[in-house]
Design brief:
Helix content: 55-70%
Order of helices and strands: HHHEHHEEHEEHEE
Strand content: 5-15%
Distance between the termini: 73 Å
Structural class: alpha+beta
Radius of gyration: 30 Å
Shape: elongated
Number of helices: 7
Length: about 300
């Protein structure tokens, strides 16, 4: 009886060792297949009827389909890039000419009614021009045509230039516009980060009532520098706050004010493209704080 038990134990041990060796070989082969797939050099090497061979075949088919799909995406991206360039080029000149002729008409001796028509035409042309510019920027960011180039540098010069652009508009409404001095630095693309800050400032000045205030302040945290644009506008209900960074979204509270609803979306795309993030803090009737957080390193 004892020899039978010993033999059975030896056979069980050998079976366990073979099973372990086979599983290890299979895992090693799978790792090798995945490594080659990641490096782009995968090819079928085993053509037997084993499960591993069938997996090789399926993986090869998948990678082939993925390569074709990637090629199609790249081709579509190039088409979109060309389309954006065409739209930008073809519309810029006609819009500029319409605006020029409208301004020339406004200089003529016109009756009150006609002058009103000309003024409305100029206003709508400028709005269309802003919309086209925003759509082109948005498309370039979304398709990766526009590349951001973040560098380490001080934030204050960029913020000072952005705030300076809105001093006249704020003065027209009697709004106090304040930039708190800072020596903080971050990693950011100066040109496009200024565009994002200007979008926040444009909204803040636009929606803040006459006599209100808008401020820009930087807070240096451990990993990020936070740019806060604070206003004394109508505020944003909590249920709308997750939506306001979406494309073309406009709150029901401010739809009477001119706007197209892409400024916040562009600001978010720009800051996220640099490894940062955006957020808003607000209560109805208490204004809002829009924040852009940029990495410090």
């Amino acid at each position: 009886m004892a020899p039978v038990l010993i033999t059975a134990a030896i056979l069980a041990l050998l079976a366990a060792l073979w099973s372990f060796w086979h599983a290890r070989r299979t895992m090693e082969r799978l790792e090798e297949m995945l490594d080659k797939a990641i490096q782009g050099g995968f090819s079928e090497e085993h053509f037997d009827e084993s499960r591993l061979s069938r997996m090789e075949t399926r993986l090869a088919h998948y990678l082939s389909a993925a390569a074709i799909s990637a090629g199609n995406v790249a081709a579509e991206k190039e088409k979109i890039k060309s389309l954006i360039a065409d739209i930008s080029h073809q519309t810029r000149t006609p819009l500029a000419n319409i605006l020029l002729y409208t301004q020339l008409l406004a200089e003529r001796d016109l009756t009150g009614e006609v002058r009103g028509y000309v003024s409305a035409l100029e206003e709508q042309t400028e709005k269309l021009q802003s919309l086209m510019d925003a759509l082109v920027k948005m498309s370039r960011l979304e398709t990766g045509v526009l590349t951001l180039h973040p560098v380490n540098g001080p934030l204050f010069p960029m913020l000072e230039g952005a705030v300076r652009q809105f001093v006249p508009k704020a003065a027209e409404k009697g709004i106090t516009l304040t930039l708190v001095p800072t020596d903080a630095a971050a990693v950011f693309d100066p040109r496009w980060t200024a565009e994002a800050v200007c979008n926040l400032l444009d909204n803040a000045v636009k929606y803040t009532p006459d006599g209100g205030s808008v401020s820009v302040r930087v807070t240096a945290c451990e990993m990020f520098c936070r740019i806060d644009v604070t206003d004394t506008g109508p505020g944003i209900p909590e249920e709308e706050q997750p939506k306001i960074f979406q494309r073309f979204y406009r709150s029901t509270e401010v739809r009477a004010v001119e706007g197209i609803g892409v400024g916040l979306y562009l600001a978010r795309q720009i800051v996220e493209g640099q490894g940062g993030y955006s957020r808003v803090s607000s209560r109805p009737g208490e204004g809002a704080v829009f924040s852009l957080c940029l990495p410090r390193a």
